[in-house]
Design a protein that fits this description.
This is Molybdopterin oxidoreductase. GO terms for molecular function: iron-sulfur cluster binding; metal ion binding; molybdopterin cofactor binding; oxidoreductase activity. It is built from 24 helices and 26 strands. By secondary structure, the protein is of the alpha/beta class. It has a 6-stranded mixed sheet, with helices on one face. Helix 5 runs parallel beside helix 13, helix 8 runs parallel beside helix 13 and helix 11 packs across helix 12. The chain is globular, with a radius of gyration of 25 Å.
Length: about 700
């Protein structure tokens, strides 16, 4: 730490599920944190962080933090608890796991985790216990699958141009991410390009959000129709001579086939599908065609549809048609997750893994816990769970099924958490968890190129303990503590991993704070070829065989209605189309001061967000006889939810937006927005379609 007067400045990284993974400077005084700042000397963070993390003292010192182990003392979900010692609580958990294993086999235990922390040690050590005990596998599907799959189909490697090159672009296209709310550093570099180079900023999204208000050109599309818009843009690029034919011949697989395919994908055709007026489509195509240094920053939001992988592939293809990859400040970027090269084999216990053990789909937890044979993949019922870093009773789709499953009397659930979340309320044992400033870990930023150390800066409050502690203590009680990878501290794991990467040790890396591992220009821009064996960008993807980080285990097979995916980029009509019964399409977009189900407890975030609301076009509201602020009920065959109407003309007719994942208790019936979302898998490699939901809307009774 550096010291200024009586305040020490510690260095860390934001642990939350965000591509920015900001490098942080943290004020520490008398064992408490104060203001949190973005590190000015980190070239991507550049001194800028979101307001919610700047106020992190609200969260870490919150009076409602869990500080002692709790054991259920009444009926499930009733809210009656009694305090227990860590020893007694862990003994109880281990006993329940062994009982489930004896009754149904080892696959009856399902360790369940996700991205509540992105620290590699504290997030991923649960897999080592899973493999050592032969517990059910975990196929993570709630976030990246459609986006990464679509990218890999085209580019063949999960990497791209240095995202700091946005500042060197003449046009920045921010497609499918509300960066002001979710990736503030994207705006740092885009705005720099505007100020220093006169760059144009284009934003494509399903509503006129905070990012679009910063744009020179804002394009509002209907959810799930980005592929149609992309095809029309490419149609114009070929039609008007903006396609870089020399680049296409050298670097892509079938440019002539693509051009022929796009002959009928006119702006008029696309406008009828996506709702964007023809002149706006023409203007977008002309701008990116005329501007060689165009940087396409592609987000996750537009892929959270049942055709999400196809949408990503189609939009990514625009950069190949223009050839903008050739220029500094040009190309397309989604995630740098493929560049970091950190070896997690010891943390995750790869040597202990048995591919014969079944895997279960994270997003289908409701179906799994209610005994759906297809979701269980022919295996036994899930009888015991350990949950870390996630809140499925709130964030998973088909929420009614999820809650029904957790309320089973024959299911034992242990939740390791920081607050009494919706999931913790349904548990049998709740263990208090540390926050990122209270333990050691390391982070990597998918939205940039830095590996960042996050050392412990303050002591844990109460009896909170890190994830690694829980895994180690359960391993002792479950008889696997002698297996490879167990018995090591977080720092010992970090020493091993850093050493394998050639980055020294925990102590030496603490002095460095981070490492910039961005590949050189030619590698980042695929100048020597794309990631497929032939080095060519694929306009004609192999939807069933292309390698991808999110490819499902072989035992699960290809997902969704993959047979309907198209040979070339296209609008693939796999989405939940509005119909007479459900005339509206719902997108559950992120709120600016929440992050998934985190920060929903902090006073600053709650004050800003107000209450759960439904944003709908004033003309739609008028047709329904609704007034501003009215209670509205929205629903479909999965259930119904009550919100308050908020009139908003920055959305297409027939589209409604519900921002933020509010706690279920924030809704008047105790059920949240994910009652309405479906868990059917996105083709071809799985995923959850959170922005692809047909609903009816009416005044609440």
């Amino acid at each position: 730490m550096n010291t200024h007067a009586d305040i020490q400045i510690g260095h860390s990284a934001c642990p939350h599920d965000c591509p920015s993974t900001c490098a942080l400077d943290v004020e520490v005084k008398d064992g408490r944190i104060g203001r949190v700042h973005g590190a000015r000397d980190n070239s991507y963070t550049a001194g800028v962080i979101c307001a919610k993390v700047a106020r992190y003292a609200e969260r870490i010192h919150h009076p409602d933090r869990l500080l002692k182990p709790l054991v259920r003392a009444g009926a499930k979900g009733e809210g009656a608890w009694k305090e227990a010692s860590w020893e007694a609580a862990l003994d109880h958990v281990a006993e329940a796991f062994l009982k489930a294993e004896q009754a149904h086999g080892s696959e009856a235990v399902w360790p369940y985790q996700y991205a509540g922390t992105m620290g590699l040690v504290q997030r991923d050590s649960i897999h080592r216990l899973r493999h050592a005990k032969r517990y059910s596998g975990f196929f993570g599907t709630i976030c990246t699958n459609p986006a990464w799959t679509g990218w890999m189909m085209g580019a063949g490697k999960l990497a791209g141009p240095d995202p700091r090159e946005m500042a060197k672009a003449d046009c920045v296209v921010i497609w499918g991410t509300n960066a002001v709310a979710t990736q503030v550093n994207v705006m740092t570099h885009a705005i720099k390009a505007r100020k220093e180079r006169g760059a144009r900023i284009v934003v494509v999204d399903v509503y006129d959000n905070a990012t679009m208000k910063q744009a020179d050109l804002g394009i509002v599309v209907k959810p799930g129709t980005d592929g149609a818009l992309a095809c029309a843009v490419m149609h114009v690029l070929f039609r008007d001579g903006f396609a870089d034919r020399a680049y296409l011949e050298r670097y892509t697989d079938d440019p002539r086939g693509l051009e022929a395919h796009l002959a009928t994908r006119t702006p008029e055709w696309a406008s009828a599908i996506c709702g964007v007026p023809v002149p706006e489509i023409e203007a977008l195509a002309r701008l990116v065609g005329e501007t060689k240094r165009t940087f396409f920053r592609l987000g996750y939001g537009f892929t959270r549809n049942r055709n999400g992988a196809a949408n990503m592939h189609a939009v990514l293809s625009i950069a190949a048609v223009t050839g903008c990859w050739q220029y500094e400040g040009g190309g397309a970027f989604h995630s740098n997750s493929g560049i970091f090269g950190l070896d997690k084999s010891l943390i995750e216990g790869h040597a202990l893994a048995d591919p014969a053990i079944r895997s279960l789909d994270q997003s289908q937890i409701g179906r799994v816990l209610t005994g759906d044979p297809a979701a269980l993949h022919g295996g036994p019922p899930v009888a015991a769970m350990l949950i870390q870093n996630t809140n499925p009773a709130n964030v998973a789709p088909e929420q009614r099924l999820v809650k029904q499953g957790f309320l089973r009397e024959d299911l034992f659930t242990c939740v390791h958490e920081q607050f009494m979340t919706d999931t913790a309320k349904l548990a049998d044992v709740v263990l208090p968890a540390t926050m990122f400033l209270e333990h050691d870990d390391i982070y990597r930023g998918g939205g940039h190129q830095h590996i960042i150390l996050g050392p412990k800066l303050v002591d844990a409050l109460g009896e909170a303990r890190p994830n690694l502690f829980v895994i180690e203590e359960l391993a002792k009680r479950l008889g696997v503590a002698d297996r490879p990878g167990f018995g090591l501290s977080a720092r010992e794991h970090l020493d091993w991993m850093l050493g394998r990467r050639g980055l020294g040790t925990f102590d030496s890396f603490r002095e460095e704070r981070w490492a910039d591992v961005q590949p050189d220009f030619e590698t980042s821009h695929f100048i020597h070829g794309f990631g497929h064996p032939d080095g060519r960008f694929r306009f004609r993807p192999d939807w069933q065989n292309t390698p991808s980080p999110d490819r499902p285990p072989e035992s699960m097979g290809i997902q969704g209605d993959y047979a309907r995916l198209s040979e070339f980029p296209d609008h693939v009509e796999l989405i939940e189309l509005a119909d007479a019964r459900h005339p509206f399409r719902l997108a559950t977009s992120p709120a600016r001061t929440f992050l998934n189900s985190s920060f929903t407890e902090t006073p600053g975030s709650l004050k800003r967000e107000g209450r759960p609301e439904l944003m709908l076009h004033p003309e739609d509201a008028e047709s329904l006889g609704l007034a501003e602020g009215d209670r509205v009920e929205i629903g479909n065959h999965r259930g119904e939810v009550v919100l308050h109407a908020k009139f908003f003309d920055g959305v297409r007719r027939g589209v409604v937006i519900a921002e933020g994942i509010w706690p279920n208790s924030a809704h008047e019936r105790g059920e949240g927005i994910n009652v309405l979302t479906g868990a059917d898998a996105v083709a071809p490699y799985g995923g959850a379609a959170f922005h692809d939901t047909k609903v009816w809307v009416k005044a609440a009774g």
